[in-house]
Design a protein that fits this description.
This protein is mainly alpha-helical and about 230 residues long. The protein has 7 helices and 2 strands; from the N terminus they run αββαααααα. The protein has 3 domains: about 90 residues, His-Me finger endonuclease fold (3-Layer(aba) Sandwich); about 55 residues; about 35 residues. The protein starts with a helix and ends with a helix. The model has no long low-confidence stretch (mean pLDDT about 80). The structure holds zinc ion.
Length: about 230
């Protein structure tokens, strides 16, 4: 009874060592998972009713056999089979380089996707702008709103500046508003309390001076009366 390996050897000599899919030479010494190793390919796949007989088998590379799998042989041209073989050989002999290539391709894909997204966003912006330009009254009203807001912002800034100046020496926080005008004036006077003290002193000093003068005058007039 022939083993699979001896069957492959027989097939190798029968097919003159040529893979019938890629038309390339097969190395009989290579074994196992090497993509260039020899395999028996069923011309009509077993899964589609092909028989496991000599009339239905041909010598092929492992890679070519994998690519063909359950399909008919004319799904790919010999050049495509060859390209696949080269790719698989490269993948098996440079696994790290292969991984690197996959990652590079992934990055390229990501870049393309992001560029596409950016393009879409830019396009959206452009469309929006065009729409706004076409919608002139709305644009004008928006401009008016912006101007109004600018004016109000300027007014608010002036108001804040004024209040800050008024309340610079005040212990009353700028934002707390007095309940009445009396409260406002009280807080203002308190903020100028130095002047208040001065006024107070001047008033009472003058009262003292006047009262002393009056007292002296009264005493003098009394002594005149006594004389
Ligand atoms: Zn081949």
């Amino acid at each position: 009874m022939k083993t699979r390996r001896t069957a492959v050897t027989d097939l190798y000599y029968f097919d003159k060592g040529i893979c019938w899919l890629c038309q390339g030479p097969v190395d009989l010494e290579l074994r196992g998972l090497d993509p260039r190793s020899s395999e028996i390919d069923h011309v009509i796949p077993v899964s589609t009713g092909g028989l496991d007989v000599w009339g239905n088998v041909s010598l092929s590379h492992r890679a070519c056999n994998i690519l063909k799998s359950d399909r008919a042989a004319d799904q790919f041209t010999p050049a495509e089979y060859r390209a696949n073989l080269e790719r698989m050989v490269f993948r098996s002999t440079h696994p790290d380089l292969w991984l690197h290539m996959i990652i590079c391709r992934r990055e390229t894909e990501l870049k393309e996707v992001s560029r596409e997204l950016l393009g879409t966003r830019l396009e959206q912006k452009r469309l929006e702008e065009a729409r706004l330009r076409a919608d002139k009254p709305r644009l004008r009203s928006l401009q008016d709103q912006i101007d109004d807001l600018n004016v109000r912002a300027r007014q608010a800034k002036a108001y804040i500046r004024m209040h800050r100046r008024a309340g610079r020496a005040s212990s009353v926080p700028i934002r707390s508003r007095p309940a009445s005008m009396l409260g406002y004036w009280c807080s203002y006077a308190w903020s100028r309390r130095a002047w208040l003290v001065t006024l107070y002193c001047v008033c009472f000093r003058s009262i003292g001076v006047v009262s002393l003068f009056l007292a002296e005058h009264i005493a003098r007039s009394e002594s005149d009366i006594v004389k």
